[in-house]
DNA sequence: ATAGGGCTAGCC
DNA sequence: GGCTAGCCCTAT
């Protein structure tokens, strides 16, 4: 799981009051550590959670109001949390009210604070994807925005699966969870059984040390030595989580295309999924290639006729004189400037030592092949490097290491 | 998104 | 001319 994913999930869990503290801490233990300092909402959620916890009376032990108040004051005075409590919340706790009244007052204020906590990024994304505004969001989104929505859809379904355990469901409410999953999984829900965790498979070795071993049994590298035993289970679980989500993601996309069906043909730009295919199709004329580039989720094959398409006919003869000039004009798109075939190559840029070291560190940490995660983990170092650059560079380094 | 083959600028 | 690092292209 990437730090970004972990943040999305933690942000959602921490700010959800329905999730009991015991459940929250259990789930927290299975997440990679996330710095709460990146998000005011997350910090506020954690602060409210701490205060909630201090004010809640556990079933087994009876606690008197003074004790509760003392605990609450301790939380409110915690230097890590204090900045995230509003002034008026801290005030009654230090007043000389009767403890019971102060506790009751605090609880009321706490209710208000919980209610005013903004929705998490995950919930916002979910609403945009599967909520009532989904269609509206899509219709109003430009190309870049749609790409983001697609990414969010996948991220959201991944997150759901990663925490789709009976524990989490009991916390957020079974009906809600099932409803969301149902929406995400339709129409082929049968391929993904909610609550059934994917089986662990034997993922191929992904660490570079083993890669070297395959090529040269004696090769040993101190530079890229992955703690394979410790890392592999995590990688495997990540991998099969991704695998298990695949079905949901596809369904999600299918679902999107189904909803898009309602506006297909009625307005411009209803073939959002096809936009991505266009540049490639322009370069590749083989029918097989065109078929391969049908974008997942698009119901109509590119080989099928598009009812909204215009056609230009050319009879192949050069007898231009027989036709009016207007008819002889080439379709507009053929007259537009094509990008130069010798498109500007990126200027060759030598990899710095720091970049190399960071790349090796990234591979050690996230595993070979997780170039996107590595790039995201060191955005400043790899600012001018693409994931493909990372992959190429590592391949290059590997050659040296394995030589 | 990633893997792997291919191309080529730049160095010797 | 050969080699290689860095980059591109294509398939999956």
From TrEMBL:
Residues 343-402 form the HTH myb-type domain. Residues 343-398 form the Myb-like domain. PROSITE patterns: HTH_MYB, MYB_LIKE. CDD domains: SANT_TRF. Residues 204-218, 243-260 have a biased composition (Polar residues). GO terms for molecular function: DNA binding. This is Uncharacterized protein. It comes from Oryza glumipatula.
């Amino acid at each position: 799981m990437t730090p970004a994913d972990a943040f999305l999930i933690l942000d959602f869990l921490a700010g959800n009051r329905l999730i009991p503290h015991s459940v929250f801490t259990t789930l927290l233990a299975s997440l990679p550590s996330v710095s709460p300092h990146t998000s005011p909402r997350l910090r506020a959620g954690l602060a409210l959670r701490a205060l909630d916890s201090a004010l809640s009376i556990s079933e087994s032990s009876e606690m008197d109001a003074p004790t509760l108040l003392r605990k609450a004051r301790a939380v409110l005075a915690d230097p890590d949390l204090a900045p995230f409590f509003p002034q008026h919340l801290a005030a009654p706790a230090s007043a000389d009210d009767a403890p019971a009244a102060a506790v009751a007052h605090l609880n009321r204020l706490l209710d208000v604070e919980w209610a005013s906590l903004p929705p998490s990024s995950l919930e916002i994304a979910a609403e945009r994807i599967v909520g009532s505004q989904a269609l509206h969001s899509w219709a109003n989104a430009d190309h870049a925005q749609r790409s983001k929505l697609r990414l969010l859809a996948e991220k959201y379904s991944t997150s759901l699966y990663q925490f789709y355990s009976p524990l989490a469901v009991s916390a957020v409410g079974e009906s809600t969870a099932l409803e969301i999953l149902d929406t995400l999984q339709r129409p082929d829900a049968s391929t993904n059984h909610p609550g059934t965790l994917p089986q662990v498979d034997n993922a191929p070795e992904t660490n570079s040390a083993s890669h070297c071993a395959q090529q040269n049994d004696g090769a040993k590298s101190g530079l890229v030595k992955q703690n394979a035993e410790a890392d592999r289970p995590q990688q495997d679980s990540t991998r099969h989580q991704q695998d298990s989500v695949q079905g949901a993601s596809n369904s999600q996309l299918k679902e999107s295309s189904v909803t898009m069906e309602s506006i297909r043909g009625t307005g411009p730009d209803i073939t959002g999924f096809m936009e991505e295919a266009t540049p490639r199709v322009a370069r590749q004329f083989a029918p097989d290639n065109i078929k391969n580039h049908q974008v997942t989720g698009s119901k109509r094959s590119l080989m099928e006729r598009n009812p909204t398409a215009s056609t230009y006919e050319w009879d192949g003869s050069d007898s231009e004189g027989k036709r009016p000039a207007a008819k002889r004009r080439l379709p507009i798109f053929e007259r537009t400037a094509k990008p130069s075939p010798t498109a500007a190559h990126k200027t060759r840029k030598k990899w710095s030592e720091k970049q190399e070291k960071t790349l090796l560190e990234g591979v050690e940490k996230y595993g070979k092949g997780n170039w996107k995660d590595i790039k995201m983990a060191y955005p400043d170092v790899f600012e001018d490097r693409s994931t493909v650059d990372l992959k190429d560079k590592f391949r290059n380094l590997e050659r040296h290491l394995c030589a």
